[in-house]
Design a protein that fits this description.
Blueprint: H1 2-66, H2 72-104, H3 115-120, E1 134-137, E2 142-144, H4 146-154, E3 169-172
Antiparallel strand pairs: 1-2, 1-3
Helix pairs in contact: 1-2
GO molecular function, one term: zinc ion binding
InterPro entries: Znf_RING, Znf_RING/FYVE/PHD
Protein name: RING-type domain-containing protein
Length: about 180
């Protein structure tokens, strides 16, 4: 009887410990979900401010362009401002999309590599040792280093190694 009682007490302790672990895990996941909701709500409040400001400035520029009494220098300045505002708007949208993607990826956020880094730091697809600094005229893929580009020309390879599109020449890519 004593053994049965010891077993029962031990099983109750194990069951209680498991219950506590499950409760702690549940609370942790609940806190993580609430934190994500707060961050998302903060981002949603932050986005319209930029969009409203850009829209307001864009409307002002359009109103000013409609005036016929504007001299060419002022009109040129307004066009430059409009271009800058458009670039600012696009940059803000890209930034917000990148932030949303990083926050939504959760644990994979440590693996995030900016698109520019992926594009500019690509290695040659043939030797994989040197940076790719030659592009194929036709498809535009930057996928060859100087040594491999010379070999492709010498061997008269007329298709892109990436997409098999016909290539009319291989040119150096200036960064």
């Amino acid at each position: 009887m004593n053994r049965a009682r010891v077993r029962k007490v031990r099983d109750e302790m194990v069951h209680g410990a498991l219950q506590q672990q499950i409760e702690h895990q549940h609370q942790y996941l609940l806190q993580q979900a609430q934190q994500k909701q707060r961050e998302q709500a903060a981002r949603q409040q932050h986005i319209p401010e930029h969009l409203d400001e850009a829209d307001h400035l864009h409307e002002q520029i359009l109103e000013a362009e409609n005036d016929e009494n504007i001299d060419p220098a002022e009109q040129h300045q307004q066009q430059q401002r409009q271009i800058m505002l458009q670039e600012l708007y696009e940059r803000n949208v890209r930034l917000e999309l990148r932030k949303n993607w990083r926050f939504s990826s959760g644990a994979a956020s440590s693996l995030v590599v900016p698109p520019a880094q992926l594009y500019w730091e690509r290695a040659c697809l043939i030797c994989t040792e040197s940076p790719a600094n030659f592009y194929n005229r036709g498809c535009g893929h930057v996928c060859l280093c100087s040594a491999c580009a010379v070999n492709c020309v010498l061997h008269k390879i007329a298709t892109c190694i990436l997409c098999r599109a016909p290539v009319s020449g291989i040119y150096a890519f200036v960064r």
